[in-house]
Amino acid sequence: MSWIRAARAMISEDLDAAMLRDPAAQSRADLAVNSPGLHAIWIHRAAHRLWLNPAARPAARILSTIARALTGVEIHPGAQIGRRFFIDHGMGVVIGATAVVGDDVMLYHGVTLGGRSLARGTKRHPTVGDRVTIGAGARVLGDIEIGDDVQIGANSVVVKSVPAGAVATGIPAQVRMPGSPGEDPYEALFAEPALFI
Length: 197
Prior knowledge:
This protein is an alpha/beta fold. About 35% of the residues lie in helices and about 15% in strands. It has a six-stranded mixed beta sheet. Helix 3 runs antiparallel to helix 4. The N and C termini lie far apart (about 40 Å). The relative contact order is 0.10. The model has no long low-confidence stretch (mean pLDDT about 90).
């Protein structure tokens, strides 16, 4: 029964992360019942466990399809998602089969972590580092690396790797480093309006 304790701990951790990131959340119970982003990641975690067993892959795909129908979030069961992951609002998020997402990542609605290649059996989707925020409607495409602590602005299209600590905004995304060490993220919003999410 240690897997039950581990699952409870992960759910608790996800709820804590959501409480920190969602100013509209009333309580952990409110989030547990009403957050489609959390429901999607919890179902994904179960589907991913199934995916690791080749014989259970059809069941994993069915579970991910049910999650998409219930939440509006499509996460391929092969995608690797880190701890304390949160999707705010959820609707329209797509995460591809070979995507790798680090810890403490936050996505807003309409984000795509997608591929740019039709080649089978290869890594086609992004690798996203820890503590990354990706704004509403952003598209992060291809086998690229998004470094730790990156911020990607709303509706940006990112097709090249982004170094740790950078800000990426626009179509195609332009990358800049924060103006000064320890730049206040709230103040950065006024310097980079595309970061408003």
